[in-house]
Design a protein that fits this description.
There is one protein chain. By secondary structure, the chain is an alpha+beta fold. The protein is 44% helix and 17% strand. It has helices at residues 22-27, 42-52, 71-81, 110-117, 120-123, 128-131, 158-164, 176-186, 205-209, 211-230, 232-256, 263-282; strands at 10-14, 32-36, 57-61, 65-67, 85-93, 104-105, 144-145, 148-149, 153-157, 190-201.
Amino acid sequence: MTHEPRLEVFVVDNGSHKGDLDDVMQAFPQASYIFLNQNLGFSRANNVAIRRARGEFIALLNPDTYLRNNAFDLMLAHLGDHPEAGAIGPKLATPDGGIQYDAGRNLPTLSTEFAHTFFLHHLIPRTRLGGSDYIRWWTHEDTRQVGALCGACMVLRRKVVQQVGLLDENFFLYWEDVEWCYRIQQGGWKLTYLPHAEVFHLGGHSMAQNAVNSLHAAFQSSVLFFHKHHGALAANAARALIFCGCVLRILMWLALLPLRKHRQEAKNRLRCYAKTIVWIFAGHSVKRPQPVPIDEKAA
């Protein structure tokens, strides 16, 4: 072939067991494979591939996803027709036949965290108070500009990444996509949710593999987000809400602990909430990191 390929694919093995990718490599020899010696987290693993990418557009795609109805073609076509859009995401379908609401959501605020803490997102999900995080009163069946997209599948312009920087590697797991979307909007770009581009997403694999550490990482990342973009006072308020949420959930899961059906999950949740409360009272400082520049060499 004398012309440049239309698509380049990078598969990042983020510290998995040796041989896990053998079948994939045989089936797709045209892809580029990057092997990391340990799990470096979502942000850092994706950044390693992004640094090597040379295309006009950059796409993130989780390994537990399946593309439907030419999803990438539809998203690229929309970006071509809408130069104000810096990034775009599809509708994410779930195994139970539903949709993943965080595929097109508002940016988190202390109000949305308050709603999560006190279960308002379950009690009154279709109200502005309880459901504003994932815009739960919206069917997610029409194209619209949103506050944040989901990192399980999203497409960005390369020049957007060059402007705002890579994923923040201080976020090991969770909230890194939301934080990236925040910076993209601060850079003057729009974020588009495109529902007729559809991707099937199994979801929950990181949580299932290590429930205690994954949920604890989510709490830490939320505090980091508020500290980075809203200051120490907001971060402390987020800590206080997390503490209240942990106490409430400890009481709930203690009540479920005697039931055999929920015993193992209850034990995992209780360990996580206890670990998080210890972390809060230990007073660990939260750094205010800087965006990672796109030309930084991979570690």
